[in-house]
Queue: 2 jobs
Job 1
Amino acid sequence: MATTAAPAPGQTPTAGGSYAAGEQTGIWSWLATVDHKRIGTLYLWTALSFFIVGGIEAFIIRLQLMRPNGQVVSAEVYNQLFTMHGTTMVFLVIMPLSAAFFNYLIPLQIGARDVAFPRLNAFSYWVYLFGGVFMTIPIFFGAAPNGGWFGYAPLTTMQFSGGLNIDFWVIGLQILGISSLAAAFNFITTIINMRAPGMTLMRMPIFTWMSFIVQFLLILAFPAITIALVFLQFDRFFGTQFYEIAAGADPLLWQHLFWVFGHPEVYILILPAFGLASEILPTFSKKPLFGYNVMVYSGIMIGFLGFGVWAHHMFAVGMGATADTIFSMATMLIGIPTGVKIFNWIATMWGGQIRFTVAMKFAIALVALFTIGGISGVMHSSPPTDLQQTDTYFIVAHFHYVLFGGSIMGIMGGIYFYYPKMTGRYMSEKIGNWHFWLFFIGMNLTFFPMHFSGMLGMPRRIYSYDVGQGWETFNFQSTIGVMIQGLGLILFVYNFLKSKKTGAVAPGDAWGAGTLEWSIPSPPPEYNFAQLPVVTSRYPLWDLKHPEMTAGLAHSGPDAMTVTDSHATPMHEETEYKNAADLGIPMPFPTIKPLFTALFLVLMFSGLLFIHLDLFPVALTIMIGCAAAFVGSLYGWLTSPLE
Amino acid sequence: MATAVATAGHDSHAEGHGEHVHYTSTGLENRKIAVWAFIGSECMLFASLISTYLIYKGRSRVGPWPHEWGCKTSAAVAKTRELLQGCSPADVMKPILDIPVTSQSTFVLLMSSLAMVLALAAVETKGTPLPAGAGWWDRCLASSKFWLMATAVMGATFLGYQSYEFTSFVHEGLTIKTNLFGSSFFTLTGFHGAHVTAGVLWLLTLFAIDVKRGLKGKTDVLLVDICALYWHFVDVVWIAIFTLIYLIQ
């Protein structure tokens, strides 16, 4: 997947003229890159590739369920399909698509030249890529994980799930966790410490704010699943008894640990998309975001409350009235900050000069569709209602409205919005329109009928159903909806690939937006900002070009204009490509060491698999060998200078 | 996870470029913020491990137990030897946790935090001339090599105690497979031991650098500072583990 991304953005002739002279091209330049923009591009290509994989899985699932008593796949293959569809979409698609935007945008939005730790950033990407491949490969051998994306133990212990399927899942998730954690430490440091002069926290673009919150969710939520997975690995490989009910283990231990991670994870998936919508809506409404402060605080509130609602995934297990009540109330509470955001977006558009670009349509679709998903979410925050809905297609409808209607719609809007910044060319609006409407109609046709089939009692995860239960029409509609979405996806891929070469050339400020990333050429030069801008308000570029639009906003006085860095100057627009060396900006050296460090780490983990193939010496050799190689490449990495 | 911190620890812009200082928003070095974020994450990691231990406390179906007397041939459990009925002396399992021995290793580990503070102070004040008439003890106090090695040795001593403890438990019939107590105890303390091991290796690396070229100046202070943060954190976690697992019955 890395090689598909090989053509460098700088190779396309752009409005800004030739790309920076020092820029390298070819596969090597991608393998050894430590540039946050290139790493972001790699994340984007890789995650979109996995999106196609996850989409094909969904398509086969829907083909199987199109008619009663479907015969397309066997029950076992169906289990693998729904497990991998969920796992892929959550861990290999939406999270890394968000990571693509974190990488690409955070340094640009806060006026930095790179992330805090460029090589650690490359390491995160490679761990993600190798971990994703590790999890996806067994599909081709019919040994893909088959325990659901939530992997409930004791179902996933050796007693009930022998074979390598669950091993791939449990090891793969552990690997992906390392990638997410390393990236989160990096972005927290970047946002706290690398903002341009004058870029105070309450002037940061909302996307950066939401990303900031997400990084904290990541570092606080991932350890819980890490430990849950460690227990499961120990149970499976070393005979511990964490999930052994006969030994007195608590059958809910996994569920609690998983959902302590799993619910914040929901906000990890949605907040970046919220952030993207909060960039798109003001730009195409020609108005500053309504209620910026409230947007920030409600984001923080969502993140905070997100840690106190996990057991609403477990109402059906019988936790008792007290626990049910507390978690039910907390869940209802979290609807408030989320609702605030919806109203703020509507108020942002209210009275604005709206331009209905494709990006704008996706962002508006997010507001509409997420609201539907949010409302059904509030419905099952009530335990008695939830008991009717748990494990039915109603839940499937709910979380696809928030994850597809929310996250994917927001991310698609983000791709159309930032494509000109990344490549210097616009995506086709005409094809984009078709893509949008096919996605919008297909999405609603797929998931809305699931509310009804769920209410009629159709359970999740069943591989076939009998006639005469009133589910036929709804399932048929859902399958047709997926086909329409598939058409949309094909158009999107075509648009994405073709526009790189033939799209209309985009200037630096492609849409007339107000934040820092638009004040530099498209695609940005490797050093991002020749001179760091001194920021005095939330929309520095609008201050410069359309001061009337930001007249009502707070601006700092001249005292805050003190230039503290020799490279910083008052806010300005940059249009020229220069050479980093000419500008005297030290750039990090490209290095392949993070790639090797990541590779050996993943190989070390995969050595565990041989224990279950009864090849203990092989397992030991691989793990010790790779551990030594890992330490060696880490040592090489840490002892070589950065720039 | 030790990886993440180690890489973060050295991936600095400023290293080797004393003349070119990057602008930062807070004035703090990037690595210091990253280590604090890492420690925040580690808190959740140990919180998950410790909660699991506490949830599983008293749920084991067979012995040995941490604080109670048990019997190999029956399900009898009792708080004291006298209360244990109908168990032949050969089958008696005594409480497995040895608080006096672990108190010694706890003391050593906590004292290592003091040595770590002195190591950092020694690097910070390096280059300051010693007072007139300074003796052996003053030179020792100002030696970063001495205190780095002392911290590492105390960490290693703690690990020595832990391996002695683990081995004796296995001899008394408690392994990671025996019961819920064994599984959660060995996993929790093993995770902590792995963190101490990573810390000892980190300290020895700093010691090696100190021997090779001498730790000195602002960037080197930071190098020791972030290791110290990690080391104190590992100590603090042990205080929680020692109190919750060993002392509270």
Job 2
Amino acid sequence: MLDITNLKARIENKQILNGVNLRVNAGEVHAIMGPNGSGKSTLASVLSGREEFEVTDGSVDFMGKDLLEMSPEDRAREGIFMAFQYPVEIPGVSTINFMKTALNKIREHRGLPAMDAVAFLKVMKEKMKLVEIDQSLLNRSLNEGFSGGEKKRNEIFQMAMLEPKLAILDETDSGLDIDALRIVANGVNKLRRKDNAIIVVTHYQRLLEHIIPDFVHVLYQGKIVKSGTKDLALELEAKGYDWIKNELAIA
Amino acid sequence: MNTATDKKNLLDEFYSTFNASGHQTNPAQRQAMEWLMTKGLPHLKSEEYRFTPIVRTLEKVFDPSPGAIIHKNVPDADLSLIPRMPCNVIAFINGVFSRTQSIILDDGLHINSSDSTLANEDDDPFALLNHAFTSESIHISTNEGIAIKHPVAIVYYFDTTTFAFSNPRWSCTVGRHSSLTLLEYEINAGAGKHFNNKQTDILVAEFGQLEYTVIQNGLLNTVQINNTRVHLASSAHTACFTFSFDGQLVRNNLTLILDGEKIDAHLYGLYMVTKNTLVDNHTVVDHRKPNSFSNQLYKGVMDGNSRGVFNGKIYVRSNAQKTNAFQSNRNILLGDNTTVNTKPQLEIWADDVKCSHGCTTGQLDEEALFYLQSRGIGKDMAKGMLLTAFATETVASMKHTVIKNFLESIISTRLQSSN
């Protein structure tokens, strides 16, 4: 599904990604971990098409297409979804209207007819249950005055609505208490299917107790320096990142 | 205010036009003209007109020998701005009040005209100019304790091929415990440029309610000055909305005098302009008694080479304790050649008050734009959604839903894209 080859990227004059290689297949959940400043969020940003990052080398193939050539909206229409670490507050635009517009743009891209208000509400109500989000929240301006937990639940609600092929969860656990974390993780788990994939970007292991990854990668100094199974996340939790840094220093 | 006269003597042109007009025989008009001659026109060093080269602009368009004012009959439908909305109509045709074109639908609503003058020596020069050139004042009033059902539309209809110099004047009294909706706009049917220099005095009596909306759209290359004063008595409630969508130069002086307690005053403004349009909003909110509330929200969406000016004065007099007065001016600059000059001016003599002001001028929020794009919404459409949300906040609290819907549709048509 996703093939990242030797990806290098910088912001302004600061090189952040130094040759990332990663392959994600349909049906898989990959966790990307690493110490602060290792490039985790940059990787998520580059995949979703943030313009402030400049790709200096490498390629990203998504379902046979060159992802890096696409605008952010085309990436979304092709099936990429990023759950933001810091979801934006947008006064005057309700989540419902926003989602209806977004969903119909994606359907249009896929050759599907626009969904009418009745059908949309029906789908919306189903998806609301997944993340235990209340409709009154969705009638309000997008994320405006939402608590941290509500914002993250809204991200997963949007993911449920748009049914992406590849979802990238950027530090979705940050700022969540344990109950909110469980709700968000349950939502994500219900969305796991054989034909989609998820990349979980996280600093801590605790989200991975709920969303069990198939693979865990350690990103350090802009490269994936170690890959393993979910046991690697446990090892990182127990030992911290220093042993990996030491291993690399010795090598 | 500085009083130096202008190099090219626009003032002299006004004076000779005045002397040739027949207005000079009326003592009150003559007095207003003399005050104006003494005072002079504002120039760029005049504090109140620092960013608005009004004299320079008028020099380019003003024709001292305009064609004769044409009194013509206009089909009623041509005077309406919002289709299928019945209105009481106060019509000014090519600058002159027309009783035959005016329509009264509602009981309890009265229209009178008089030769009264409201000028004072220390008035704004353009207010004096209005009084020099117009003797007739139109007075709109309501009975007490009545809700006037239909809006009163104040229509300035222009259909000339040559330059028109127009000085309409009207006043309005909203009676005690009465409510009224005023809607004011221009219709431009001809190709002639004009200078519309308007003067308005409104009184809202105790417990009166007024919703007053000014729509400046389709102004073409005209210059417009609106001098509007609103006096509010105790427990009056008023909301003034000013929407500026085009024109060459638009100057809105809106003064609210809160001369009573428990007054609720709201001022909303939106200037959403492009090309070389200059829109200048000067507001004054004068709290003279305790326990009143005022709120101002002015927003700008600037494109092309357009310029915006916002100057918001709030006075809280020494006995106006427990005043709540708020002001906010927010601007989005879309074009590289756009500018906004904004200046809050709070003068507070009372000590137990809550006042705040804030202004922002910047670009569209890139992070919000990216957020919408990341969900599959194209960049242009996302921009349109954000701008529409930004702009429509100024109309959100409007009570008259037909006028509100009309404005929302102008805003979204102008700003939205389907890509």
